[in-house]
Write a structure and sequence with these properties.
D-amino Acid Aminotransferase, Chain A, domain 1, seven-stranded antiparallel β-sheet, DNA-binding
Length: 344
DNA sequence: TTCCGACAGTGGGGTCGCAAT
DNA sequence: ATTGCGACCCCACTATCGGAA
């Protein structure tokens, strides 16, 4: 049998849950926060490829035995490589050191510290046959017959029925969200479309603008990003990250107008902002409050995947407390609005 | 005509490796 | 030894354009 063809992973589009009348057309899977990987099992050997078709096999030796768990077939599988933290939740941060590591000795250390699990959710090819034209339901059935779950790999369940229940479960489990997939859809390699829709559990916070960085390219001469802060118990303005997306051109212009008269020579932050950010920063009096949507906080207390929602002129900067980031906002009541997760 | 998909280009938090300082 | 930078990972988002509806 011939060499396996190369596939590019199909991507999900960010969106909202389908309306209830269409629930029977969709299936929901938990969204695993890790790195995408296509697994090529050929002649009993595993090859793992990243989203951009880089060979990352050497970084994940604990997955090699998976080659013996597909009934001796040559297959191409699609899934997510995930590292779990002590609480049993997927942790991108715990996975990060592995992603670029190729040195066998260092990899071995990392495997021992934080082993990964391959969450398999699709099958693209079996022996000489591409199965991407099979509908999702049939590929799932094939996948579950094909793969024998192991300690370091599994085929997590696909939920039928009300996807809202799956989304609620994802939130309760501290997961990123769900991916809903059309049960009659083909696998479209390398494409991003609504037949795979990711629905995420976002949080919202209010932040104080403490400065901004000039942009580049078409953002040249304008705001590139905003430096954000929140006050701690001692009244110090702590740096919580940047936001550089979510603005329309008009919003950028309006912000520029509002920030210009607030400019000041030194940083308003009560603790040093990392040098690489402070270098070309323009500081402002911390008077403006805005709202930011984000996926989660990093280990350093920075916003991950932040996006700007708009100014909050109704808020006082002094009300913006860092404590709101770490407590008092359990996942689930952290300011989600219905529009985030439910189709309108 | 309007709408949608794909793309390019901006921005974020990270890690690692390597060249320049 | 430190710093800067690009290559990879994760990603959100806006603006644009051409073709589908």
């Amino acid at each position: 049998m011939g060499r396996l063809p190369t596939y590019h992973p199909m991507l999900a589009q960010l969106g909202t849950l389908p309306p209830p009348a269409q629930h029977h057309l969709w299936s929901a899977e938990m969204k695993w926060d890790g790195v995408r990987g296509l697994a090529y099992v050929e002649a009993g050997a595993l090859r793992l490829m990243s989203r951009n078709s880089k060979d990352v096999t050497l970084a994940y030796p604990e997955l090699y035995p998976m080659a013996g768990a597909v009934g001796g077939r040559d297959v191409v599988l699609d899934g997510e490589i995930v590292a779990f933290d002590d609480a049993g939740r997927p942790s991108f941060g715990a996975l990060a050191p592995r992603m670029h590591q190729r040195s066998p000795a260092k990899v071995a250390e990392l495997v021992k510290a934080v082993p990964v699990t391959y969450m398999i959710f699709d099958v693209l090819h079996v022996d000489d046959r591409s199965v991407v034209r099979l509908p999702y339901d049939e590929r799932r059935e094939l996948l579950e017959r094909l793969v024998t779950p192991g300690f370091r790999w599994q085929t997590p369940v696909s939920f039928r029925g009300d996807p809202r229940a799956a989304l609620d479960a994802s939130r309760a489990l501290g997961l990123e969200g769900v991916v809903v997939k059309r049960r009659d859809s083909h696998y479209r390699p390398g494409r991003r479309g609504p037949e795979w829709t990711k629905v995420k559990n976002f949080s919202h916070i209010e932040v104080v603008i403490g400065g901004w960085k000039p942009g580049a390219g078409r953002r040249g001469g304008r705001i590139g990003s905003l430096l954000l802060g929140a006050y701690d118990q001692g009244g110090r303005l702590l740096y919580v990250g940047h936001v550089g997306t979510g603005f329309t051109d008009a919003m950028l212009e309006a912000l520029h107008q509002e920030l210009a008269p607030l400019e000041r020579p030194g940083s308003p932050f009560g603790v040093p902002v990392p040098r690489e950010y402070a270098r070309d920063a323009r500081w402002v009096e911390p008077r403006l409050v805005g709202e930011v949507r984000y996926a989660e906080l990093t280990g350093d207390g920075r916003l991950r995947h932040p996006s700007w929602r708009g100014l909050r002129p109704d808020r006082e900067p002094a009300e913006v407390r860092i404590g709101d980031l770490f407590s008092g906002h359990p996942a689930g009541r952290s300011g989600r609005s219905p529009g985030d997760t439910v189709a309108g």
